[in-house]
Amino acid sequence: MLFFQDGTPFAKAFSSYAYRPVEEYDKYPRIFIQVEIEGFQTEAFLDTGSPYVICDPIIAENLSLDLTHGEKIEKFLIRGYTIEGYLHRMNITILAEGGQGLPVDATVFVPNLTPDQDWGNFPSIIGLSGFLERIRFAIDPIKDRFYFGDLEY
Amino acid sequence: MSLITTVGYEDIIDDIQEQIFRSLSTNFISRQERSIEIDPFFQSSTSIYSNWFFYNLFKELDMRLLQSEFLGQTTSDYPSNIDDILKLLKSSESRSDKDIVSLIKSINWTDKSADDYLDLVKIAITSGDHIIAYQLAVKGTEQFPNNDKLKNFSKILAPPKILPISAPAQPGLLLNRDWLIENQEEYKGYWVALKDGKLLGKDKTLKVLIKLIGNPKGKGILVTRV
User: Fold this and answer.
1) How far is it, in rounded angstroms, from Cα A83 to Cα B97?
2) % of chain B surpassing 70 pLDDT
3) In CA terms, which of A26, B94, B158, B196 is 20 to 30 Å from B179?
4) pLDDT tens for residues A103-151?
C-alpha cells in the first residue's frame, strides 16, 4: 500500500485497472476500474470531467430501481449530447484485489433514452465531483494499479 | 458515444438560447466588472439567473408557438428568428447593462417559490453548476421543509459519502483481469460475463448477454465490454 512520510496510510487498497479506449474510434485510452453498482459488477472508466457517476441504462434496468425515488432531469449533458434521465442516490463500491473495497453512497445519473436514441456500447462512468472528490487515489502506470482509500485516516 | 437523436425543437431552442446568451452575456457583466474578483457563488448564480431569465422568457414567448414555428426546420432556417427574439428582448428591456448587473447582484433568493427553486436546481444541473445545484436544493429545503421534491434533491445531490460497510478483497478480480488481457484480441467488441477468470457468456450487446446469463446482480459476476 501507499504511505505518507509519517507512516500514515495514503491508500489502503488497490486493484488492477484496464487501460484502453472507450470505443473503437477513440484515440486515447482511459482508465477502467472494476466497480459494483448496487451489486452489479462492471467496469467503469474514470472521467474527471463528469460530475456524477453515469450508469449504463441497461445495467440500471437490472438494478430494480424505483424511478419514483429519483429526480427527473430533462437536459443533462454527456460528452456533447443532451439527454434526459434520472438522478439517483446509489451504493457504488470500488472493488479491491488487495485491502478493502470502498463502498460509496453517491449521486448517479441514469439516462432515460427515447426510442430514437441509442446508448450503444458506452460504459458507465466514474466522475470526479460526485464521487472521486472524497477519495484518495493514485495510479501506478507501470503495474496498471489503482490505489485508493477514504479520507478518514 | 453513438447516441442518435433527431433535431427537434428543443435542440433548436437550446441553440437559440446559447446564441442569445453569447450575444448578451458580454453585456451582462462588463469587462471591467469581470476583471474584478467576484465570488464564485455570485458568478454561478449570475449564470443560473441568466438561464432562468431566458427560461422564463421562452415561457412568455409561448413555447408552443416556437415549437410549431421551428419544428422540422433546419438550423439554417432560423437566424432571422434569433434577431426577432433579440429585438423583442431589447425592446422589452428598458434597463441598462449596469441595472441588469445590479439586478443580478440583488437577487433575493428567499422570495423564490418552491417551484422556482426546483427550476433553478434543474437549470443549474443542466448548465453544469452541480455544486450550486446542491446549495440551491439545500437552501430551498430550508425555506420549504415540507417540499418532498426539494428534500429529495438535497439528498440526491449531497456530496459522496463513504459507507461503513465491509467490502473484503476479491481475489477473483485479478483472475478476471488476467482473462481480459489474455483474450482481448479474440473477444474485442464483445460484452463478456466473467467469474473468477472463467467466461460465462458473451454477446455483441449487453442486453442479449444479460438475457443469456440472467441478471448478474449480487452474484459476483463481472460484466464488461472487451
Assistant:
1) 34
2) 51
3) A26
4) 999 999 999 988 888 888 889 999 988 899 889 999 999 999 999 998 8
Residues 6+ apart with CB under 8 A from A149: A9, A10, A11, A12, A13, A99, A102, A135, A136, A137
How far the first Cα of chain A sits from its last, in Å, is 14
What is the tens place of the pLDDT at every residue in A82-95?
A: 889 999 999 999 99
B225 three-state secondary structure: strand
Threshold 0.90, pTM exceeds = no
Closest chain A residue to B188 measured between Cα atoms?
A24
ipTM of the complex: 0.90
Residue of B nearest to A114 (CA): B5
The pLDDT of A57-69, averaged and rounded, is 86
pLDDT at B90: 43
Distance CA A66, CA A130 (A): 21
Interface size A-B, in CB pairs within 8 Å, comes to 175
Q: Do B160 and A123 touch (CB under 8 A)?
A: no
Give the mutation candidate from A23, A50, A69, A71 for the B interface (greatest B CB count, under 10 A). Answer: A71
Lowest mean pLDDT among A69-73, B11-15, B213-217: B11-15
B3 neighbourhood in chain A, CB within 8 Å: 81, 83, 113, 117-120
A6 min Cα distance to partner chain B (Å): 24
Task: Look up residue A28 and give its three cell numbers.
Answer: 486515447
Of the partner residues B163, B171, B217, the one whose CB lies closest to the CB of residue A105: B163
The dihedral of CA B211, A87, B220, B224: what is its sign? Answer: positive
Instruction: Say if residues A141 and B196 touch (Cβ distance below 8 Å).
Output: no
All cell numbers assigned to B28: 451582462
Distance CA B158, CA A88 (A): 11
Sign for the pseudo-dihedral over CA of A106, B123, A76, A83: positive
What b-and-e string marks burial along B138-175, b requiring 16 or more CB atoms within 10 Å of the CB? Answer: bbbbebbeebebbbbbbebbbebebbeeebebbebbbb
Cα B54 from chain centroid (whole Å) = 17
Cβ neighbours for A27, distance < 8 A, ≥ 6 positions apart: A21
- Chain B residues near residue A103 by CB distance under 8 angstroms: 162-163, 165, 167
